Amino acid sequence: MAVTQIVKVAARAExxxxxxxxxxxxxxxxxxxxxxxxxxMVLRKTNHLGERAAWIAFAAEIALVxxxxxxxxxxxxxxxxxxxxxxxxxxxxxxxxxxxxxxxMPVQERTPFMDAAIDDALAxxxxxxxxxxxxxxxxxxxxFMLGLGAMLVLVGLFEIREHRPAMSQxxxxxxxxxxxxxxxxxxxxxxxxxxQQSDEGKDATQEFNKLIExxxxxx
Length: 219
Description:
This protein has helices spanning 4-45, 51-74, 81-90, 95-103, 112-124, 130-133, 142-157, 179-195, 199-216. By secondary structure, it is mainly alpha-helical.
């Protein structure tokens, strides 16, 4: 095919058109997904959303960006979009696009003018530059997307404290002992102290004496 070189260069330009569209669409989708991810993170941090549901939401938000990017790249372009972009950038007055149209016709149906147009396009196609003809854009949403990404990280690092009541241990009420009971206990203790001669008996008497003091002080 006489116009093979033109076809290749035009295809490169079309790939860059698709890529440029993908960058713009994916950036817009990423902004939407980041807003949704921030909401998901806040709901998870405040325990309004379970762990499993949060991961499902994050996966859906990532999938949104991937699907939008795939659709943007795969979406059909206008006919000969790459050649037209090259013609427009290099001021070729539709030479490349016309040559592609003529090249699709059977050779026997071409006129000498068509053959001359193809030869003219082949002469200039070596000088065209798809990178300059179709530059990749910097989306104006990019700063907003980066800001949302930073906000998502900050929300992820922020920990919400939970206020829980202090643990308290239930205690029993003190035993109500009368003064007469205490006197009786003390008299009994004095009698036992006089009778006990062993170390074990003395220790038991001391422990009993502490118990009497605790009862007297309602401990």
